[in-house]
Design brief:
Elements: E1 2-4, E2 14-16, H1 18-62, H2 82-86, H3 94-100, H4 104-123, H5 127-145, H6 167-180, H7 190-194, H8 197-201
Antiparallel strand pairs: 1-2
């Protein structure tokens, strides 16, 4: 919008808002672009983190030959918790984890947790409960590996690379970050999930 001088006004009178409007348009455009980049970055983090959990479930279920050898999968009668928990060699819960190793209830809880968190994160739904469940799983696995230990129970070096922060902490923080930012709305079913009556009535399900 521009206001130009008329003959009855003093010479040189000229007001123009074009420059300010252009600056505002540029600022809004830059803000929109930044928001879109942030949304896409969080959506990528959500999907990648979800795939970590989902892949672990698939590999342990079917024995895809990576962390779980072929023919040793859950579907073949193998236990997804026995190998890991029975090998715990440090930390305050070492004997407790040994007693849990291979237990049916532990196998089911662990596998359902991997599947549920993986699917929820990749689909962008139920991010809050999946963040709670995933963080609990990562906390237990962190305790099982016990990074603060410099030596194992047999005296061998633990080879811990960091006494506090390892990949379990990173995964837990990633799950919390995508949950609190509502990252399921981008490249996910978060908006549709939030419109469900039960989710509208219980915000903790989002």
């Amino acid at each position: 919008m521009a206001v130009h001088e008329h003959h009855h006004r003093s010479p040189g009178f000229h007001l123009s808002f074009r420059r300010n409007r252009n600056r505002s348009t540029i600022a809004v455009s830059a803000g929109t672009d930044t928001f879109a980049v942030r949304a896409h970055a969080l959506a990528s983090l959500r999907m990648l983190t979800g795939f970590v959990f989902l892949w672990a479930f698939l590999d342990k279920t079917f024995g895809l030959g990576y962390a779980t050898a072929s023919g040793k999968g859950w579907i073949d009668g193998g236990s997804p918790t026995k190998g890991f928990l029975s090998s715990v060699a440090a930390g305050p819960m070492r004997s407790t984890f040994h007693s849990w190793a291979g237990a049916t209830w532990a196998d089911w809880l662990f596998m359902l947790g991997l599947l549920g968190v993986g699917l929820a994160a990749m689909a962008g739904v139920a991010l809050r409960p999946s963040a709670v469940a995933g963080t609990a799983m990562m906390a237990l696995m962190w305790i099982a590996e016990w990074p603060p230990a410099r030596h194992l129970a047999n005296g061998a070096p633990s080879m811990s690379t960091n006494p506090l922060v390892d990949y379990h902490v990173i995964y837990a923080v990633a799950l919390i970050a995508v949950a609190v930012t509502g990252a399921g709305a981008t490249w996910g079913l978060g908006r549709q999930w939030a419109r469900l009556p039960v989710v509208r009535d219980h915000a903790w399900l989002r």
